[in-house]
Design goal:
With 257 residues, the chain is of the alpha/beta class. Helices cover 29% and strands 25% of the residues. Strands 1, 3, 5, 7, 8 and 10 form a 6-stranded parallel β-sheet that branches. The C terminus is likely disordered.
Length: 257
């Protein structure tokens, strides 16, 4: 019994080895004659990824589907920026010794069917979409690989052997960023901090200038009372000095009359 199991395992390993070699030769021949058809704005595409990863980002306005062949290469079809056709779309996926990921926005209805030989096919798990939500119908054939439909994207663009087609970035249009990145208009200056340079809100420059002009004279005007007192003291000292000089020289002669 154990000998039979061992022979079967050896046969499987040998068959896998030769099957991978034969598949690689077939993929090399197919790469010469098979090319991708369609661009990011096309409603229907026929994509091919052989020995080179593909990161395709669709912006179609009425995506109707197409096909994607992944052969000895990872591939990704990002549909988060695309608008699904009201009648739905049909997508044929073939994954051979590779991995395929289809990124869809939340709210789409996704139906996945097809065999997986020594591999797996997975559909998104989440809240039940609305009955009238657009539907993406996926027919998948997976051999020695994995196919997934999810809301999370793979970072294929980090690889040097990845062909990126479509707009850069992972954020769909309309999502400018997390809250807090933008300052609402009119809130540039917190209350009570108008004294710092450049913090006076628009429209208050004239009022602020008047306040500064009115305050400046008050800070630089000299009180006249101390100055008057100093002049009086100097006059008294001068008079006293003049009187002493007169007394030293003698009094003026008296009037004879």
């Amino acid at each position: 019994m154990f000998r039979l199991v061992g022979r079967l395992l050896r046969l499987l390993l040998v068959g896998f080895f030769f099957g991978m070699i034969a598949s690689a030769v077939a993929a090399a021949m197919a790469k010469r004659r098979m090319v991708s058809v369609g661009g990011p704005e096309d409603d229907r595409v026929e994509l091919v990824a052989i020995f080179e990863s593909l990161d395709f980002r669709s912006v179609a306005r009425s995506f109707r589907g197409g096909s994607l062949l992944s052969w000895f290469a990872g591939s990704q079809l990002d549909l988060r920026r695309a608008t699904l056709d009201p009648a739905g779309s049909d997508l044929d996926l073939k994954t051979i010794f590779a991995g395929t990921n289809v990124v869809v926005p939340e709210g789409w209805r996704v139906q996945v069917e097809g065999p997986a030989i020594f591999g797996a096919n997975s559909a998104p798990v989440g809240p039940e979409p609305a009955p009238d939500a657009p539907e993406l119908r996926v027919r998948a054939l997976t051999v020695f690989g994995g196919m997934s439909v999810s809301a999370e994207a793979w970072d294929l663009a980090a690889s040097e052997r990845t062909l990126v087609v479509g707009p850069a970035g992972d954020v769909p249009p309309g999502d400018a960023g997390p809250p807090g990145d933008e300052v609402p208009p009119g809130d540039e200056v917190p209350a009570g901090e108008a004294g710092r340079a450049g913090d006076v809100p628009a429209g208050d420059a004239e009022a602020g200038g008047e306040a500064t002009s009115a305050a400046a004279p008050a800070a630089t005007t000299t009180d006249p009372a101390p100055e008057k007192t100093r002049r009086t003291r100097r006059r008294r000292r001068a008079d006293a000095a003049g009187g002493n000089d007169t007394g030293g020289r003698g009094a003026p002669p008296a009037d004879a009359g």
